[in-house]
Amino acid sequence: MTSPSTIERDFKRAICESVRLASEGIDRYRVFTPFLLDDGDHLAIVLKRDRDRWILTDEGHTFMHLTYEIDEKDLGRGTRSTIISNTLAGFSVRDEEGELKLDIPDEQFGDALYNFAQALLKITDVRYLSRERVRSTFLEDFRDLMTSIAPDRVNFDWHEPRLDPDGKYPVDCKIDTPRIPIFVYALPSDDKVRDATISLLQFERWQVHSRSVGVFEDQESINRKVLARFSDACEKQFSSLASRDRIVTFIQNAITV
């Protein structure tokens, strides 16, 4: 059986001399690496025996750490989900109900630790997506939410076919109801809020009756004057997708009224 000192030497060879093991019981070791999370914590890595094999596991810490900043539901959808799935597949890491595990083949301890650490770092990097990637995720999350509320009633990127045949005044999501439609706008930026305001005012001039909803990526980031004009034109606003439950309740109630 491979000794802890031999395993530690292999870890040091693959990563650097600062890697160390700390025993936490029989055939269980905490692995300390130079890789840190943004709050200064070490990557959570445990080496332990699982029946007849050695494995590395984060014991659920990576996803738990991400949910401090990102809604757990959002990790399983859109761009974030794609990045996480591709990372797990690329490094042969298993996700077992939120716990990430990697088998160590043929006592290749150093190579396994290097791969596992890289996988954890890439997954935690979903919080640092570029502005355009974040915006893409917001729009994907918005569409997923609207579809989940009323899958048979939604029309994305809708425009009024008779009065606006060229689509100059688009609606991000039109939800049909028995009475009047609900126009829902996804609002990631000042420009988008301005466009939504212009569209709502134009619909008012045309006497196109609807209920209007604005869902912001981050309402606090919107210019105050831009937000004030939009508030005058829009019936209901939600500051971010973190208000998911309230958004669902409002729209479901609006559909049935």
What structural keywords apply?
elongated; alpha+beta; single chain; five-stranded mixed beta sheet; 2 domains; Yope Regulator, Chain: A; six-stranded antiparallel beta sheet
> Could you report the average pLDDT, rounded to the nearest whole number?
89
What form results from the Cα inertia axes? elongated
**Whole-angstrom Rg:** 25 Å
Number of strands: 11
Instruction: Output the CATH class name of the largest domain.
Output: Alpha Beta
The fraction of residues in strands falls at 15-25%
Which helices and strands, and how do they pair?
Layout lengths: L3 H11 L5 E4 L4 E5 L13 E5 L2 E5 L3 H6 L5 H4 L2 H13 L3 E3 L2 E5 L5 H16 L6 H19 L4 E5 L12 E5 L6 E6 L2 H17 L4 E6 L7 H10 L2 E3 L5 H13 L1
Parallel strand pairs: 9-10, 10-11
Antiparallel strand pairs: 1-2, 2-3, 3-4, 4-6, 5-6, 7-8, 8-9
Helix pairs in contact: 1-5, 7-8
Please, could you describe this protein's structure?
Helices cover 42% and strands 20% of the residues. The protein is of the alpha+beta class and 257 residues long. It has 2 domains: 4-128, Yope Regulator, Chain: A, CATH 3.30.1460; 131-256, Trna Endonuclease, Chain: A, domain 1 (3-Layer(aba) Sandwich), CATH 3.40.1350. The protein has a 6-stranded antiparallel beta sheet with strand order 1-2-3-4-6-5. Strands 7-8-9-10-11 form a 5-stranded mixed beta sheet, sandwiched between helices. Helix 7 packs parallel to helix 8 (224-233). The longest helix has 19 residues, at 131-149.
